[in-house]
Design goal:
Elements lengths: L8 H7 L9 H27 L3 H7 L8 H32 L7 H19 L2 H4 L18 H8 L4 H5 L9 E2 L3 E2 L3 E9 L8 E9 L10 E5 L13 H10 L5 E5 L16 H5 L3 H23 L5 E6 L1 H12 L11 E5 L5 H7 L1 H5 L2 H7 L4 H4 L3 H4 L15 E3 L7 H11 L7 E3 L3 H10 L1 H12 L3
Parallel strand pairs: 5-6, 5-7, 7-8, 9-10
Antiparallel strand pairs: 1-3, 2-3, 3-4, 4-6
């Protein structure tokens, strides 16, 4: 029997007619109301990764100073034991995976694909701990984020002196991109790309998952889309990665190469003791600059790599967090060498003013980011001192005719009305914009559920240079 990766049931349900129920303002309100509990469970999982099966160490990781009753201790002990087992299984499979996909151990395509299935199933059991630690969401033991907000005066002194060219300039060197062995997806050939990150702010390995038509010759030049994922996505460390389905596996069989970068501190790049994406939330605004700058230069490397493979057009896009990075690429890629500069930018549910976002977004308020900043002494006025690094400039670095934004008209999580004003100032044509009457999660669901988004992307990639 031929082994191949398949589309998870969750995505098939969302994409089905029944999924229309999720595409409503009511669902958006329910989703927003549960975000804090979901992130709290992730924080408990991150603490468990460090504590092992030691209940007291687990409580210390969560900064729980008060005593808890015996019945809750028993529940925690049981959850920690179950969690350790899930984590150990994933680590064992991940080690084997590295030996097979990056090393010299030869396996057939079917064997590699089967191993990938097992690894991602184990990753879901470890990294999606809603069942294991959900009972803690009914207590007040778990904070959403382990905050470490930096001091405003020190931060402004250090970062305020830097120009956008200093932070968002091209990489000094272009590292070699290594490709893993392939696996078989649903009509796709899938593999990992990795390279040492050229970012000045991290010492890390950059990863991206690549999707191509399964039967396409390896040397065939393919239109390429590099598309960034959203906040707190565990990417290909778990079974269901939304961007994989509605972008990667949707477009690749039609003759595209789709590259999904793993953001800094997410998925394979997760920091021990933090859940995927937590460091980005914990050290705002410095962490925001570091992540955007890092993903921007890594994107430049991937654009260069796609061109080296003969791509006739290279687009850069992304949703939410990935959309923000796309905006910074669109803003500053004009200073990059031509081979690193994308032809098209497709920011989806993005923001153009991070300082405003940190104090006005409902999401940053719910996750406690706004409160942590205020507690550290930050004000909107002080944040404005970093506008050169955290807000869109007056003019873009790409031709505005080559920018194709997607947004929700009532998306106040990313403050789309401010984004709209930036697009107007940049001169992005109205006909280049896809706008829906919905909020932030509504944009995601419409992108996942409707052919309109995929057709919009195809049109953008096919637009004349």
């Amino acid at each position: 029997m031929t082994e191949q990766l398949s589309t998870p049931l969750t995505h098939r349900l969302i994409a089905s007619p029944l999924g229309l129920l999720f595409q409503s303002r009511l669902f958006e309100r329910v989703k927003v109301a549960t975000v804090d509990r979901e992130f709290g469970v992730l924080r408990a999982r991150a603490a468990a990764d460090v504590a092992g099966t030691d209940v007291d160490a687990f409580l210390d990781e969560l900064d729980v100073a008060s005593s808890i009753d015996q019945s809750l201790r028993t529940k925690i002990a049981r959850a920690l034991k179950e969690h350790r087992s899930a984590k150990s299984r994933y680590e064992s499979l991940a080690t084997e995976w590295d030996e097979v996909f990056w090393g010299d151990e030869e396996r057939s395509l079917d064997e590699r694909t089967r191993l990938e299935k097992e690894r991602r199933e184990a990753g879901a059991a470890w990294l999606s701990p809603q069942r294991t630690f959900k009972f803690l969401s009914k207590t007040d033991l778990v904070d959403i984020v382990a905050f470490d907000a930096p001091d405003p005066e020190t931060t402004i002194e250090e970062w305020g002196a830097l120009s956008a060219a200093d932070v968002y300039g091209p990489p000094d060197t272009v590292p070699e991109v290594e490709q893993s062995e392939i696996m078989r997806g649903p009509e796709t050939r899938e593999y990992l790309a990795r390279f040492p990150s050229p970012s000045a702010y991290v010492d890390d390995t950059a990863y991206a998952r690549v999707y191509e038509p399964f039967d396409a010759p390896a040397e065939e030049p393919l239109p390429t889309l590099i598309y960034g994922t959203g906040l707190a996505m565990a990417c290909d460390s778990i079974e269901y990665w939304t961007e994989e389905e509605y972008v990667g596996r949707e477009l690749a069989p039609e003759g595209y190469r789709v590259v999904l970068p793993v953001p800094l501190w997410h998925g394979r790049r997760e920091v021990a003791g933090s859940y995927t994406g937590e460091p980005y939330l914990a050290r705002m605004p410095v962490s925001a600059i570091e992540l955007y700058a890092t993903q921007a230069v890594e994107t430049a490397v991937l654009v260069d790599w796609a061109r080296s493979r003969g791509a006739p057009v290279v687009g850069v896009g992304g949703l939410s967090l990935g959309g923000i990075v796309t905006m910074f690429v669109a803003a500053h890629a004009g200073t990059w060498p031509e081979r690193m500069r994308p032809d098209v930018a497709i920011p989806v549910a993005a923001s153009a003013d991070i300082g405003e976002l940190l104090f006005e977004s409902s999401l940053t308020e719910i996750l406690g980011v706004t409160g942590a900043l205020r507690d550290a002494g930050w004000t909107p006025e002080l944040m404005r001192e970093l506008d050169s690094l955290l807000a869109a400039p007056e003019t873009p670095g790409l031709d505005p005719d080559r920018i194709f934004p997607v947004g929700g008209l009532v998306d106040e999580m990313t403050q789309y009305q401010t984004m709209r004003a930036t697009l107007d100032r940049w001169g992005v044509p109205e006909e280049n914009r896809l706008e829906w009457d919905c909020g932030h999660f509504g944009v995601t669901l419409r992108a996942m559920r409707t052919e309109e988004f995929q057709e919009f992307v195809r049109t953008a990639l096919a637009s004349p240079a």
